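Hi! If you just cloned this repository, the fastest way to understand the data is to look at a raw example. We've pasted two of them here, unedited. The first protein comes first, obviously.
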Amino acid sequence: MDNLTHSLVGAVMGRMGLKRLSPRAMPALILAANLPDIDSFIAPLFGEDPLAAHRGFTHGIGGLVTMPFLAVAMIWFWERLRPGKQGPLKLSGLLLACFLAVLSHPLLDFATSYGTRLLEPFSHRWFYGDTLFIMDPWIWLMLVLGLEMSWRAERLGRNWRRPAAWAFGAMLLYIGLNVAISARAVALTRPLVERVAKPRIIEAGEVPLEFWKRRMIWRGDVIGGTGEYDPLKGLNQVKLDPKIIPLRLDDRRLAAAAKRDKHVRAFLFWSRMPMVFEEDGRAFLTDQRFYDRDHRAGSTNFLIPLDNLASSS
């Protein structure tokens, strides 16, 4: 998910009562809820490709062990520089708050179709929730309203934790609804795909703003395709695009590029649905999730030319 969502979730968790665990708990919750995304920035320092490193160690078991302590250390250091008026930090309460905030990050990221390696460093396996779009304004709206109502209740001397809890609960119900929609879309798509090929992956991607819709992406061993599901037009109807996409993973240029270029290897490690396509006689590596047959080369960041790559180990 985007960092605005992570920040709002951290803030709502604080307004639910976690901010009382320690002075500075509120900024600590927001910081810790975002901290796992540090991986993309520090990856080059360790010679890693940011695309392959993102949503890895800091989003897995390793992150749950290390990131809360890092967040507490950062808050402690800031407190030493600029002591607050709320009294000394309660390190045990601060650590608990940071752990819960860090935990919220990979769980939210898992809900998307981008992928998260939840078991790092013990396993490099990617997990995909296929439930939420990476930026969801409906979640923003729920959480912002919950925060505003919580602040207003506190100013009026009322129970300020309840509005935040209601907003958090509404978000969980919304996620549950999307889980059900995605599961239904996949179940309806599978028998249609089986008429064409044995499905290896069927993804139900949420459409921005129109959360009830799903963009279906499927692939077999050598071909793939797309479709759409809109329960408002028919609860039991999925429409598949008749155009078939060749995956071309046996293209010699892909194997050669993977041997000589580390960026290609990093892309293949990250990619859930790799594919090769040709345009104007040139071969490009991309991911089926971000492929548009009507696009032009260079119109997406998830696009690597395979011809004449410079050697990079």
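Ok, and the second one:
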Amino acid sequence: MLAKLSRSLTIALAFCLASSVLSAAGRPPKTSTGSSDSSSESTLPSGRGALRQIVQDQCVINWQQHHDPDPCERVVLAGKGSDVGYALLGDPGGGAHYLLVPTQAMAGTESGELLDPDAPNYFADAWHARELLSKFVGHEVPRAAIALVVNTARARAYDQYSIHIECLRQDVYDSLRRSAEQVTSVWAPLDVGGATFHALKIAGEGLDGANLYELLASLTPDTARHMGDYTLIAAGAQFKSGPGFIVLTGTGPSGEILLDSSCAAAGGGG
């Protein structure tokens, strides 16, 4: 318990340094300029590269050298001696909220490599990690209460691709349950959480056989050239025909507005 608390505090402090001076316009923060004999806090990553630095310079190295992912929750690498894979870490804001972060530098949805058919399926990996939410809440969180979100390029605070793993807001959870049978395998507008997104249905227990970025690129003939303008959300769903997902996208509000780190929709109790 103390180790987990220490890990959370370390991550939170690092991100606080990175984000405390972000303006409403999203300008990157300035790196602190403390003296060399100041506290160790001054050596923590700051700026828009903080997320990548925490994963690459701390989590991966600790895992390779000590088989300890600290300050991350988990590090998964391609093989022995490899530094290619992803890390899972608790969001610095706390709550039932985790981030999947590739160990390799990758900007975001605008990264062309995400359309490579041989690219890692990070959405599938994030879905496999959803048990972290159940562990935090203390009981199983139903699939229909969970969503995976990638923000738009303009909305993200850090220059590193990440997927938010979190519960849906109660009203969004209720709305998607009511609308589930209206969603088909063809993109169509859907009002969710006070905003209009395009929605599409995927059938199946997991996302291992789905390339969400190929699906996003098929939205319009022009979408593939402006991927960074789009948020991408995969919300778990339980259709009458079986389990699946409702995929949402749009260029309006970023998908993170649909999430709730208290996981009230699954009885998290805030």
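That's it. A detail worth noticing about the second one: The longest helix spans residues 2-19.
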